[in-house]
Design a protein that fits this description.
The complex is a heterodimer of chains A (273) and B (297). Chain A is mainly alpha-helical and 273 residues long. Chain A is built from 14 helices and no strands. Chain B is elongated and about 70 Å long. Classes of the chains: A mainly alpha (273), B alpha/beta (297). Chains A and B meet through helix 1, helix 5 and helix 6 of A and helix 2, strand 5 and helix 3 of B.
Chain lengths: 273, 297
């Protein structure tokens, strides 16, 4: 029953050896620190501590970075093995396809989690040291880290899904880039356009908030912003989030990884090496 | 239930509108080494993937030690070496083999295995630094994990130098010796000739031959070549017993296997006029050409 851990172990060794873990952690630390210092200006005017502002900035960062880092590891998961010709061999072993996918997912999620904890943790510690932190802002930081890992999990699984559909690793990389663009940039632009056209009508009041949390990246944003008053104030995004019941965003973000993994599993079943 | 380790019955497979496997029958007994020959695209790799359960078949039955292909039991019983296998370049040989050992649930002495295939120096280096032959050796090491009852080797000698090929066949003999049924898909006719018990030839998805080399030779009725080196006058010999002058001093005769002894007696009767005699039975290459090109009824 622990066969998937054998895959996890090998995948972790790969992530460590090819410097992915190091680079991802470094990127997280640098961006988080930069945002913490650059975003510390409004502290006084809003009357919140520096960690709160930092969390608000890092939330915006994570919406882009967590999916990107996740897709960067996962696009290769099936298509890469297929290209190398080692997928057929792997599948000839007694481990099931679900176990192989779960093994990779566990390793990739652990690596992503490590990068998030170190990156956001460092920035949080620096912000708290220089500008103070309360119980509220510490909770917001913890929420940010956990939801970032969840968001990463969604895109890891979506990456496996694409990797199983693609004809090769290069195609999988292209599809992943497209997916990232759609979920993180174009979807929001589309919604924004619709809201502008609608001019405060039925769509804006009723459908828009739900359409927004249906996207995991937006659900992540809403969850983090709605949960803490200070973060909402610092990010200037209160309206949309308040139109929804408080469970909507967490439900979306918790459901997405399960759904995406199920899709990936189905697509992987059809792969013929 | 069955004494065959691998049993393939009437297996057919379509890919789109093309029939890539057509009513294939093949059995391999424990300890038997069977060569599967055929051109590129003859269906060898497809057949192997069907046995592994990696690709569905449209008709017939495959039994691996009594289990259906792709089942847990069948996969546990099978070892596989894919054609031109490659592994993740960031792992070391030992790490890669450890992954396979854990997946198969066998506790093996990995160092000893890697030494056995000649990777003792390289086992802790990244696979990215390996040559093609070294990757093939690593692939072979994972075949030796556990004691498979069926081993499927797809072009195992591709990319290996002559010495490595000999090592490979020594390992295959070892596998067969411990009771593994070995199926080797190959182009390397001359190697397979000496190192397998039976030869199956596939052509466009159809099995056109399946027997021992000797019996294949007999049923193909290919001629035996006799080359006579004349002591003095090759022309005279050619006139007396027929045949063709091939160079200044030799005569070549092609004769049916059934006429072989009679021809030899006639040559012996020539006495001192014959300096030397060489006899070449049909090679696998000739047989292969005969069976793989022969028009199907």
């Amino acid at each position: 029953m622990t066969r998937f851990l054998a895959v996890t172990r090998a995948e972790l060794a790969i992530l460590k050896r090819n410097r992915w873990l190091f680079m991802a952690t470094l990127i997280m630390v640098l961006f988080a620190l930069a945002l913490t210092f650059a975003g510390s200006a409004p502290t006084g005017t809003l009357g919140v501590d520096m960690l709160t502002v930092s969390v608000a900035s890092m939330t915006t960062l994570s919406v882009y970075l967590a999916p990107l880092l996740a897709l960067m590891i996962s696009f290769d998961a099936v298509a890469g093995d297929m290209d190398r010709g080692s997928l057929a061999l792997l599948l000839s072993y007694p481990a099931g396809r679900g176990e192989i996918l779960l093994g990779k997912f566990t390793a990739h999620l652990a690596a992503l989690g490590f990068a998030m904890v170190i990156g956001f943790g460092t920035a949080g510690a620096v912000a708290a040291w220089f500008g103070g932190a309360g119980a509220d802002s510490l909770l917001a930081l913890l929420r940010l880290i956990l939801t970032s890992i969840l968001l990463g999990a969604v895109f890891l699984a979506l990456g496996y899904f694409l990797s199983s559909l693609a004809s090769g690793a290069t195609a999988a990389a292209g599809m992943s880039a497209g997916l990232w663009l759609v979920f993180v940039v174009l979807y929001d632009l589309g919604l924004l356009g619709a809201v502008v056209m609608d001019q405060g009508g039925y769509f804006t009041k009723t459908i828009f908030p739900w359409a927004m949390v249906a996207n995991p990246a937006d659900a992540f944003r809403v969850w983090n912003i709605a949960a803490t008053e200070g973060v909402a104030m610092a990010s200037g995004m209160t309206g949309a989030a308040q139109a929804l019941p408080s469970w909507a965003a967490p439900a979306s973000l918790l459901l997405w990884p399960v759904l995406a993994f199920a899709f990936a599993r189905l697509a992987f079943r059809r792969v013929e090496p | 239930m069955t004494d065959k380790a691998l049993e393939i019955q009437d297996v057919s497979k379509d890919r789109g509108k093309t029939r890539v496997l057509n009513q294939i029958n093949l059995t391999v007994s424990p300890g038997e080494r069977v060569a599967l020959l055929g051109h590129n695209g003859a269906g060898k790799s497809t057949l192997i993937k069907s046995i592994l359960g990696l690709t569905p078949i449209q008709g017939g039955q495959i039994s691996v030690g009594g289990a259906a292909p792709g089942t847990q039991r069948a996969r546990t019983a099978t070892a596989y070496l894919p054609e031109a296998v490659s592994f993740h370049p960031a792992l070391t040989g030992r790490e890669q083999l450890a992954l396979f050992a854990r997946l198969s649930g066998t506790k093996a002495d990995l160092s000893a295995l890697l030494e056995r295939v000649g990777l003792s120096e390289a086992m802790d280096r990244r696979i990215g630094t390996y040559s093609k032959g070294m990757r093939q050796r690593l692939g072979l090491a994972q075949v030796l994990l556990g004691k498979p009852s069926v081993a499927l080797l797809d072009e195992p000698t591709s990319g290996l130098d002559p010495i490595s090929r000999q090592d490979l066949y020594a390992i295959i003999d070892e596998l067969a010796g411990q009771g593994t049924a070995v199926l080797i898909a190959s182009h390397a006719l001359t190697e397979v000739e000496a190192r397998t018990d039976r030869i199956a030839i596939m052509r466009k998805g159809v099995k056109v031959a399946d027997d021992t080399l000797a019996k294949l030779g007999a049923s193909a009725g290919l001629p035996i070549k006799l080359r006579i080196r004349a002591a003095q006058n090759a022309d005279a010999i050619a006139q007396r017993i027929g045949g063709q002058r091939v160079n200044g001093a030799s005569v070549e005769i092609l004769c049916d296997p059934s006429e072989k002894m009679e021809q030899l007696r006639r040559i012996a009767a020539l006495g001192d006029a014959v300096a030397d005699l060489e006899m070449t039975p049909p090679r696998l290459e000739d047989l292969y050409r005969h069976y793989a090109k022969e028009d199907l009824q």
